């Protein structure tokens, strides 16, 4: 069975990464500075490995591609922009 993206977000490797990004961004949304409520880690780019025909695992991105956003900034961002996919 293929693991879905949603399930991957409970992977301990992702939880570790997420904790690190949240700490780096002082547990605040980098756009509006909100620190209460639900915070999401957003990928600024998705990387697709051509050779393996698969996306890079969410926890294998460099920290610079990840940012902390509150739910509303995150939703607004996804509504306005499409996350660019880089083929590697
Ligand atoms: Zn925000
Ligand atoms: Zn996102």
Secondary-structure map:
Layout: H1 5-8, H2 12-24, E1 39-43, E2 46-49, E3 54-55, E4 66-70, H3 71-80, E5 85-87
Parallel strand pairs: 2-5
Antiparallel strand pairs: 1-4, 2-3
Bound molecules: zinc ion (2 copies).
Structural commentary:
The protein has one domain. The chain has a 3-stranded mixed β-sheet with strand order 3-2-5, with no helix packed on it. The protein has a two-stranded antiparallel ribbon with strand order 1-4. 31% of the residues lie in helices and 22% in strands. It contains 3 helices and 5 strands, in the order H-H-E-E-E-E-H-E. It is globular. With 88 residues, the protein is an alpha+beta fold. One zinc ion (ZN) binds next to strand 4 and helix 3.
According to DSSP, the number of beta strands is 5
User: Count the helices. How many?
Assistant: 3
**Largest beta-sheet details:** 3 strands, mixed
What would you call the structural class? alpha+beta
How many distinct folded domains? 1
Sequence stretches where pLDDT stays below 50 over 5 or more residues: none
Shape by Cα distribution: globular
Q: What is the string of SSEs from the N terminus onward? A: HHEEEEHE
What strand order characterises the main sheet? 3-2-5
Helix fraction by DSSP (H/I, runs of at least 4): 25-40%
Provide a compact summary of the structure.
By secondary structure, the protein is of the alpha+beta class. Helix content is 31%, strand content 22%.
């Amino acid at each position: 069975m293929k693991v879905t993206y949603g399930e991957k977000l409970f992977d301990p490797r992702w939880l570790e990464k997420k904790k690190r990004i949240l700490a780096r961004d002082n547990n605040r949304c980098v756009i509006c500075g909100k620190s209460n409520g639900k915070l999401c880690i957003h990928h600024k780019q998705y990387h697709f490995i051509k050779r393996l025909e698969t996306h890079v695992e969410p926890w294998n991105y460099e920290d610079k591609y990840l940012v902390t956003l509150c739910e509303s900034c995150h939703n607004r961002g996804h509504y306005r922009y499409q996350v660019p996919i880089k083929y590697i």
